[in-house]
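hey can u check if this looks right to u? its 147 residues, i copy pasted from the old doc so theres a chance i mangled smth
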Amino acid sequence: MIRNQMRLEFLSCSENVGLARVAVAAFASGVDFNLSDLEEIKVAVSEAVSNAMIHGYEGATTGTVRLSASLSDEALEIVVEDDGKGIPDVEQAMLPGTGSDPERLGLGFVFMKSFMDEVDVWTEVGKGTRVKLLKSLPGNGSHLANL
C-alpha cells in the first residue's frame, strides 16, 4: 500500500539535477533512511536524471523529465522518465565505461545498480526511457521479492 507519493516535471536543463536530488532526499527523509542511504539515493537520482538529459535529449534543454517517487511499507520507488531518443541496447548501456558521450565515464547505471536494490529500465528507440529505482526501507530488505 502506498503511504505517500510525489511527482515533479521539469525541463532537461542541468540545474534541475540538483532540484531532483533535493526533492527526492526531502521526500525520503520522512522514513528511517540513514544519511548514507540518503546520499546513495541522491546519487542514483542524479545519474538517472542526468542520463535523461545528456543521452535521452542529447543535451537539449527543452525536453521534459518526469520524476515520481512513492513510499510503501516496504520500499521507496523512484521513476525517472523522458521522451528522448531511447536506448538502442540496454544491456550494453549498463556496462561500465559505455555510453553515447565519450567525454563521460559511462558509470551512471553502475552507480544506480550499486546504490539501489533494484534498477529496471524500459526504453523504446525514438520514444524515450523509463528508469525505476527501488530502495527497500531499513529493515525491509526481504520484502522486495514480494513487490
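The mean pLDDT is 88.
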